[in-house]
Amino acid sequence: MIKRRFFRNLLLITTASLAACTSVKEYNSAITEKKHSVEALRQDVDLSHQILKDGHPGLYWYISKKQLDFKFDSLKNAINEPLTTTQFYQKLSPVIAAVKCGHTALRFPSVIVKDKLEREAAKNKVYPLNQFTYAVNDDKLIVINNKSRNKQIKTGNEILEINGLAPKDIFNIVSTGFSYDGYNSLSKNKRIERNFASLYKIYFSEQDSVAIKFKTDSAVINTFISFYDKKKEADEKKKLDTGKTVAKAPVKKVKETLKHRGAKVNGEYQLDFKFLDKEKDIAYLKIKSFSVVSANFPQFYKQVFDSISLSKSKNLVIDIRNNPGGLLSSSLGLFSYLTDKDFIYLDKPINNGGFSADKYQTGLKKLRYYLTAFNDNGDIYEDDEGNFFSFMKGYKAQKPHKNNYKGKVYVLINEFSFSASSLLSANLKGIKRATLVGVETGGGANQCTAGRMQVVTLKNSKLALRFGLNRMAPIYQQDLYGRGVFPDVEVQSTLKDRISNYDRELQWILTDIKGKG
Q: pTM of the predicted model, to two decimals?
């Protein structure tokens, strides 16, 4: 085993070194300008279909084999002229989305920038549509935050057109390739507003200036929004501030009490904890992701529940709204603090057996597949019924944490609560441990495909197909198939609430606690 790992690592290093010599210009051309031949595109259609058949454990949960085969065959036959990678993406992504698996999707490749100065320049360039944050409401695109130079645009203003196209029409185009868990498409609007600029770039290209028509309370205004260089602007502001004698108040250093929550992402902590009242009777734990590279989840949880225990808090609010998931261990670790009984967190993690992305590649990667035995089944088990599965923590009985919390638990969920956050919600609901408040989760209540994630690059178009290799399912199953975890109390903030920063869901919980106090 040690010898095999040595040669595997040696080959990985050699492969990476040789790959670095590949023409970056040629690669960038292949994903931006080049039109791929009909034969090359049809090869990629066949390859993506074969990859899913070989590795996806839930390919026919929500669509029959006959229906999916028909979609792939129809796409293949419909390709009768060369297409760019962008054009091919727009045709293939809806077929992949037909699987109805939130973890299965096409990734659009990024241009490689090797020159350090060019990379720095690109990093500092703020494109027009990245200068706003948005809300999508009833096919309308609303500005929530404006970071552009045009200060006429205010929070709550509606964007009527972008380069002459109505947002409703843009939404219909960019959402064709969205993958959902089962039959629940509630997350559509949330996905658009969170990724609007990047989605627009794929379907309409990224532009240095865009024409925007927006509506204020009193008028309809046409304007152009252009890119700006954030470093240049910061330097100019620094120059203007130089020489000013404005007295500045001393900065009071705030002691960082949460040492293990990790760094900020886009200016916001993904893990946070605080008390919502002076008496420390209401604890509030926010987890926006179960994967935060810079965080230490076990230590963070220990610190949180030590504080709750010391304060004797009677109520705990766990906010997993907009949490797309992450590590199983992070989700399971939190659950262990919320029960006082032995528990099983996962059903058997069924898969299709050994799978390696290298098998479907060419050249050195294909060679690596054979030479390093990447096709072995060393981490795959087979049960008495002939099912393949992987061993994962949570599949066997687990012990509750010794400092488990025994008070009242509320969990905030919404349409962008996926994967590991849906798994947590389903298990808590299964043991009737928490009151779930919000709207149905985007992640499936009964199952999803995740565990070990694979990304396979298609040979010609360079699109990347991503999917999970294991069926990930809670022990507790609901009757309604192909839907998310339903809240016990359905509450959802309105657009007006979002504009005024009023948290209607949290307010319901606070009112409920007060009424029971």
A: 0.89
Distance from C-alpha of 270 to C-alpha of 264, rounded to nearest angstrom: 7
b or e along 39-76 (b: 16 or more beta carbons within 10 Å of the residue's beta carbon)?
A: ebbbbbbebbbebbebbbbbbebbbeeeebeebbeebb
- Alpha-carbon span 509 to 277, nearest angstrom: 13
Given a cut of 70, whether residue 50 has pLDDT beyond it is yes
Asked if 237 and 229 count as a contact pair (C-beta separation under 8 A), the reply is no
Residue 11: count of CB within 10 angstroms of its CB: 15
The rounded percent of the chain whose pLDDT value lies above 70 is 90
User: Would you say 313 and 275 are in contact if contact means Cβ atoms under 8 Å apart?
Assistant: yes
pLDDT digit string, tens, across residues 218-230: 899 999 999 998 8
Phi, psi of 276 (to 5 degrees): -95, 0
Residues 315/285, Cβ–Cβ less than 8 Å: no
Three-state secondary-structure class, residue 473 = coil
Residue 21 has pLDDT above 50, yes or no: no
Nearest alpha carbon to residue 152 among 66, 217, 87: 217
Q: Which residue is it, tokens 């297409």?
A: 83
The upper half-sphere exposure of residue 184, i.e. CA atoms within 13 Å in the direction of its Cβ, equals 27
CA 88, CA 79: separation in Å to the nearest integer? Answer: 9
Packing angle, helices 38-55 and 65-78, rounded to 10: 160
Contacts of 387 (CB under 8 A, 6+ apart): 348, 350
Residue 228: partners with Cβ closer than 8 Å, 6 or more residues away: 125, 126, 131, 149
Tell the residue number behind the tokens 């084999």, with chain if given: 65
